[in-house]
Sequence to fold (236 residues):
Amino acid sequence: MSLRICILETDDLRPEFVERYQGYGRMFEQLFTRQPIAADFSIYNVVEGQYPADEEKFDAYLVTGSKADSFGSDPWIQTLKHYLVERYRRGDKLLGVCFGHQLLALALGGLTERAVQGWGVGVHQYEVKGSAQWMSPKLDELDLLISHQDQVTRLPEGAEVVASSSFCPFAAYHIGNQVLCFQGHPEFIHDYSRALLELRQDRLGEELYANAIASLERDHHGEAVAEWMMRFVASA
Fold:
């Protein structure tokens, strides 16, 4: 029996990327369908006010990345925040990536801010913390593609760190068996990251851009993180 995953899409791709990459929700769908745990997906663009009907039942809700700030005052962000708090109160499982990782931390009592460290881009390495059963395959270090200038600076009460680095101490966390979030992008591929870097080259500066492009020579653990997420959802 397949898991049912609700993907709450929090951004639209730039028009020039749509033909190749389709959308952030579709990127996740393609990633998860390669995992050993079967799942079906429904995608809702919450920026446009799309949400599942109350009677719809899902095994988990995943919040995607976005160019928006999780601490922004946009009405759609506030609506999503309240929606996630309600889902949490109902006991639903919640997954977050980048913007979703930050918004869930904020909604559940943590803090997210513009990072004093500046932009995080390219392939970044983290130390893996903990050894939960759903963390299979086992990894001691985690490499993920990243693209962010905000970070979680205080975790919600009860949250435990899953991955950390000196640049991003709270790069991944979980709250019991209900919430699992990652700052990095398991759904990204190198070509998409390279396209984003090229768009932002002037903003990043020559040195950061060059280092990020060079980091794309390394592989990343997006597939492993996707498997962790599906095992987390499937666990009791």
